[in-house]
Specification:
This protein is 61% helix and 8% strand. The longest helix is centred in the middle third of the chain and has 33 residues. The protein contains 17 helices and 6 strands. It is α/β, with parallel strands linked by helices and 426 residues long. The radius of gyration is 30 Å and the shape is elongated.
């Protein structure tokens, strides 16, 4: 993966820099790295499995749309030459691989468009027009902030947010690169690596960064398969900025816009569009909500969070619908046996309680739970409510065939067998 400063991370730093200055940003960057290393050592990367496929697809599609939107400002107030050069760049990028793959086609497009612009003097905005490039290496130095609890109180909330956003983007990118390369990465190792890099960055006057899916996809599509490609990317970037700054400055933005359009087109999951008609509605809603949230907030982590929460809600609803209660009278006609099937938890308890006719004139009721699982305090509260309602009408209630986990929860949380238990006990 290719990691560097990203828009989502920069968004979190604005207030810190405005209120306290750059040195506190560097301190927050170092602390971000420490938190990420702790995350990796605690092996929390395994929780990425809780990000469902629709959220992953929404994450990728939202990023592709953001990439396109970010390029549109380059077309403001420009002439037809800009449009022609972008189209020419895309043509080179997509047609050259049909002739040869010896050289990455995006690199050829950048060189060709730059050569054309220099030779013809075409009126194109260049990299140098956007600002001066650095001409010297950064120097090592610890953040110049007081080492006090007050400083920690200032930077910790920002560092925690940066660490979480950075890890979410990095580990999602790692999962996507895994799919592209048919390999499996160690998410905890990636977390530790991101942390170490951020600590070093903060000590050299840099801001916290994370994996960048667009640049990572360029790397993979250009043939990069190992960490050597990541190292080469950083080394070449450093060399180009410091040793070839004047050459980099004359690269037309049209060439870079063409490359980023290529990234967006390759990043977007085009199969997800017809898939919206075939997949369950809940998955389509999750994907669209993830995309919409990212586009509104410009924050990929928030979009992923919304998608995961929606997925959990829809999943809970589906599981709750599997909970079923059936009943039958015994031979005497005075005892009703209720058989509970499925998962009893907070989403299912309303229908669960409503399945019992607690006003029926009976001598006894048996709750057969051999096919049911009790999961939480809400399930126990529902059991209590049913039992106490029956007992309030003079009906004896017996619970049968409760599994070990359910018995443990009943012993800890249930109140229906406690002295003085009544319907308001919970």
């Amino acid at each position: 993966m290719i990691s560097a400063a990203t828009g989502a991370m920069a968004l979190l730093m604005v207030t810190l820099v405005a209120d306290h200055g750059l040195e506190y940003l560097f301190a927050a960057t170092v602390l971000t790295g420490v938190i990420q290393i702790a995350f990796g050592l605690a092996k929390l990367g395994r929780y990425m499995r809780y990000v469902p496929k629709p959220v992953m697809v929404g994450f990728v599609n939202a990023l592709a749309i953001l990439i396109v939107l970010a390029q549109l400002e380059q077309f403001v107030g420009v002439g037809p030459t800009m449009y022609a050069m972008v189209l020419a760049g895309l043509a080179i990028i997509y047609l050259l691989p049909r002739l040869t793959r010896a050289v990455p086609s995006p690199l050829v497009a950048i060189v060709a468009i730059t050569a054309f612009a220099v030779a013809t003097g075409a009126p194109l905005t260049t990299v140098g027009d956007l600002g001066a490039l650095p001409s010297a290496l950064p120097f090592f130095g610890l953040p110049m902030v007081p080492v006090t609890f007050e400083t920690l109180a200032i930077v910790f909330p920002y560092a925690l947010s940066l660490a979480l956003v950075g890890l979410i983007e990095s580990l999602l990118t790692a999962t996507i690169v895994d799919d592209l390369t048919d390999t499996e990465s160690d998410k905890n190792r990636e977390s530790r690596g991101q942390g170490i890099a951020n600590i070093v960055s903060g000590c050299f006057g840099g801001m916290a960064g994370c994996a960048m899916i667009g640049q990572s996809i360029i790397n993979v599509s250009s043939g990069g398969r190992t960490r050597l490609s990541t190292l080469a990317s950083g080394v070449f970037l450093l060399a180009m900025v410091l040793l070839a700054g004047p050459l980099v400055a004359i690269i037309p933005m049209a060439a870079l816009v063409a490359v980023m359009f290529m990234v967006a087109l390759n990043t977007f999951d085009w199969r997800s569009l017809p898939g919206m008609l075939a997949h369950p509605k809940s998955e389509t809603i999750v994907m669209v909500a993830t995309v919409a949230t990212v586009l509104v907030t410009h924050d990929l982590a928030v979009g992923v969070g919304v998608g995961v929460v929606l997925s959990a809600i829809f999943f809970s609803r589906k599981i709750a619908k599997t909970t079923n209660v059936t009943s039958a009278l015994d031979a005497s006609g005075r005892t009703r046996i209720y058989t509970v099937t499925g998962q009893v938890f907070f989403v299912a308890v309303e229908d669960f309680v409503g399945a019992f006719d607690t006003a029926e004139d009976l001598d006894a009721v048996v709750l057969d739970l051999r096919r049911a699982q009790l999961w939480d305090a809400s399930a126990l509260a529902a059991i209590d409510k049913v039992v106490l309602r029956f007992r309030a009408n003079g009906t004896t209630v017996v619970l049968q065939n409760v599994d070990a986990k359910g018995s443990e929860l009943l012993a800890k949380l249930a109140v229906h067998d406690q002295p003085g238990a009544h319907l308001g006990a919970h």
